[in-house]
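Why does this matter for the project? Reviewers at the last site visit asked to see concrete outputs rather than summary tables. In response, this paragraph embeds two records directly. Each consists of the residue sequence and, immediately after it, the corresponding structure tokens. Nothing has been edited or filtered.
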Amino acid sequence: MFESAELGHKIDKATYREEVPALRAALLETQELLRGNGSFPVIILISGVDGSGKGDTINALYEWMDPRYLSTHAFYAPTAEEKARPSMWRYWRALPRNGRVGIFSGSWYSHPIAERIAKEISSADFDQKMDQLNRFEAMLVNEGALVLKFWIHLAKDAQQERLKSIEANPLTKWRVTKASWDRLKTYDKLQEVAGHLLRTTSTPGAPWIIVEGTDDRYRSLTVGKTILEAMQKRLADKSEPSSPVASPLSPRIDSLDVLSALDLSQSLPKDVYSTELARWQGRLAELMRHPKFAKHALILAFEGSDAAGKGGAIRRVMSAMDARQYRIIPVAAPTQEDLAHPYLWRFWRHMPRLGRVTIFDRTWYGRVLVERVEGFCSEADWSRAYAEINDFEHDINHAGGIVIKFWLQISDEEQLKRFEGRAEIEHKRFKITEEDWRNREKAGPYHEAVCDMIDRTSSGTAPWTVVEANDKYFARVKIIRTICQRLETELQVEPLKEAKVSKSSKAKEALEAKEAKEAKEANDEQGSEKADPSE
């Protein structure tokens, strides 16, 4: 794989001086066109062996291009803050926006290479990580990014000579450390690991470009020209991007699905609700203070029908937590900054560190719900999003995150009653909009999209909990109980025992539930909390 990068490629000074001005002018012009186009970012990975000139190559790019629209990120061993989050978090935060160029010195490949050389991970684990990175890069490419990956290569003898040369120069000797010489001793192992990595992660959308690093002029010109040609080709390409392959959705040949099978008549009497809510809130408070939770993060994702009671449920969960421990992220239409990055970028930014909680009121599932139904993205975009979201949640779980997802479902009749109730209350009218009424007309497509979402993204590590939410009391208790039970499982602690209810109490509760249902249907208690349309 490295044969062509060990042939002794060289460029003489005269040729170099002749070609650089034209290359520099073309790069600046193309960079300006990229900014004006603003439809995709350029992501450049500069990797390779020690002493191969990676830093000099980046310096040359800064000399030839407009540095105001370049960003460089060097990744070393993860900091304490980065270790407290999923491993990909720091790379997601560094992704350039559309129209800009981002240079990564070291990248998401550096840490797995070091781990494999040190035999800290097995060959199978390494291959699994490479497969995850392939899917990550495929997502970037499908989102429109131009991904260029350079591996700067030196033969073993050439690396040794180069390190000696750098160390002999008083102006550059600081760049050679004991670690540099130590890594030279593992050269053969690095070549074995790197060769395997380049072979398994060189994909059509993000191929590796191997460049010989012995001659500075050859290396810099090769990298500069490759970047220029790739940017020019991409800017000139006016064709529609090819649709990624996605598994077909299963046809429905009857009326039974995960939503239609729900029993929306389930309810709780007010006194039982008050007791159960307090009981599970207390349990949640205990679990959040448990020493084992310090090794986890909690991500709560709330989706549901309009007026299904997400806000009210979130408030009951919040009240059981220390306000310093959680954040609530309300998700609305994406901003211009959000649209200038890959779709999942705005959600990755809000991932909590270990020992913390993030509550999402609406989530990353907007792509396969509102964006799908309203036509805000192409079928290719939302059809591939299922796999991308599963990968996203897998990464969170692998880093200690506990993802708990809720879909709150209400009947069309209950939704209409809540809409009308909101419209009649002066200080609640802002909660009902024309869009809410319009969405009712698309109940069928939304129903189908929700069922597809649950079927395709309810995984073992991040399952969906579908909540029967016609009765707010029942829904709130089910939600907080589910959170507690999931935490008990993940933290491996003794579960809270179910409350004992006597037969007479059960009979009383059944009678009260029946009476409450009748009262609710007659709308006799419209002003009570249970019929309050504000939540």
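We now turn to the second protein, recorded in exactly the same manner.
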Amino acid sequence: MRNLIIGFIAFLYFSTATYAQVTKEMEPSWLDDIHYSKSDIDIDDVSQGTHTLLYDTQINVPQQTVFYRVTTKVTDNVGIQNASTINISYDPSYQKLKFHKIHIIRNTEIIDKLNISNIEVMRRELNAESHLYDGALSAVMNISDVRTDDIIDYSYSIIGFNPIHKNIYSTNFFLNDFKSIGKIHVTLLSKNKLNHKAFNTSAKPVISKVNNLNKYEWEASNTKKIEFEDDIPGWKLMYETVFVSEFNSWKEVVDWGLDIYKIDEKVDTELQAKIDEINAAYETNGEKIKATLNFVQNEIRYLGLENGIGSYKPFSPNQVFKQRFGDCKDKSLLMVNMLSKMGIEAYPMFVNTYLKQTIKDLLPSPKIFDHCVVKVIDGSERWYDPTITNQGGYYDSTHFPDYAHGLVLKKGNDSFDDIKLYSENKIETFEEYTIDSIGKGARLKVVTIYHGGEADNMRNYYKSNSINSIQKEYEKFYSNYYYNVSSLKAPQFEDKLNLNTFKIYEEYKLDSIWQPMAEKTDHISATFIPSSLLNSLYLPNNDKRNSELAIVYPITREHQIKIKLPTDWGIKNEKLFVTSPGFYYEWKVDYDRKEKTINLNYYLKTLKDHITQDEFRIYNQDAKKVDQTTAYMIYIPKNFSNMASISNGSNILFDGIVAIAKLLFIIGIIITIVLLIFWYTQRKKAK
């Protein structure tokens, strides 16, 4: 009963505190009055039944206030659902939300819909599945009686900046959207002069002075929606984007980071004992680095409490060690601290997992980073990601993702590290098909060897799933290609942790590998596909492209398929070599007549992470060449099991039939010559 009362009081306190942070107030007096036009609608650009007439953002840096006004016209009944729901997120640890107005404008009538008691406040935690909890709340209001042709006009302010930034302001905003917008307006008021940089737009701010504040103003009217292409690189900035920052250099960002990552307490006895244990158990620094990484990766579980300053400031290594959980910055600082106590030079490093090479073009700001990793210097430079688990390899061969560039928190540093990749993420696949007889089934043996990051992924997959479920998944995979697939035994695996290879053995019975041919109704065919190459290359559906094309990098795929035939077939040897922008590819067909075996060999290696617009035409041509060789088909007439055909539309007869045909042809020539001689002799006698 006591716990129930305490729980009720806690709930009551939370509700009261929450609603105290969501209030109703008049709009700030320092705002500019921004107008919109009802006629600025291109009906052909309207989607989902709504059109945004105005998106207004006005920021007062000294007052730590961001004002928003959104004005939306409902053009069709399908847009009522979205237009009538207002959902605003804020962090209650340092922010307050103030509503100013919620109006429905219907013809000339203005209907006031703002009633603070109708606003529901709830936790959002959109990243809970990733074990990240930011503590953000959502204030949600459903507006009643919204109709087609109504205009929804609402405004609100969020008060409070994250104190971790120590009053050094930075942000970014967009001047267009995935939908057309009548007007986008942005104003910034600041005591200090702001650095600003625009991407994908020539728009420049109107700069003036207002009440001793620097005023920066951007505006875009009748914006066009963005047309997205498939597989655009994550680092490509597609929107018309403006970055603003009071930071003047990356050194200032490093200094900011050093301050918040500073450790103000001594290592406690429990953590020191663990450090001493690793230090004594291993002789070389490389072994100590790897052992420390293994401990932080596998014994400190990933969990992020990201609200308020926790979104940037790590917990102390002592606390992380005791609680045995932490996010990227917590785990990185713990690893750095442990290595430093062993006399090994190590530093936290900020990266952005998406922006990659673009990050060096942006204005300095800690807000553009989304991840923290570790740099270690021990003769050579190495980088480690403590958030990955169950990584194999030695200290100098542990896989590190392609983050491209990182900002190391080292005193005096003012530039990015260019990260060198030393893992090719290779997959070797060996498939052996033994065909029982023409038109029936086959036995399939598969051996797959994963290297580098691919081995790490597969190791985690096997640790996280039962063998029975994996077996069913594998059967399901091959059932996409063949009829009635059944495992002859459960998958077996061999994990060589130090070499970081993960080897899997599989064996299947395929009831039938033959299918009727659509284009040759009196034929059946069997197709063999190098599955490890699937989805490795993007296959364009047109010859033109307006942006870069992302390709998977770095990867290497070696796939060998051996097909044991029930009888001797006429197969011709073939080969193809493709050196293309972004990848290299080899394909070979070798037929062993003595063993009655077809050997298909595939090799693919990507060379970079994207294709430029100038390279796209050649890439497109080369990718099609690759696509034409991946599916290898043999086919024969349904009622003639002694004749075979080769893939890619080239037909060749069974060798015995070919030999007979050749013999008959030679005999025919001899008979013809004899008849000609006989005819010539008889004609000469007649004369």
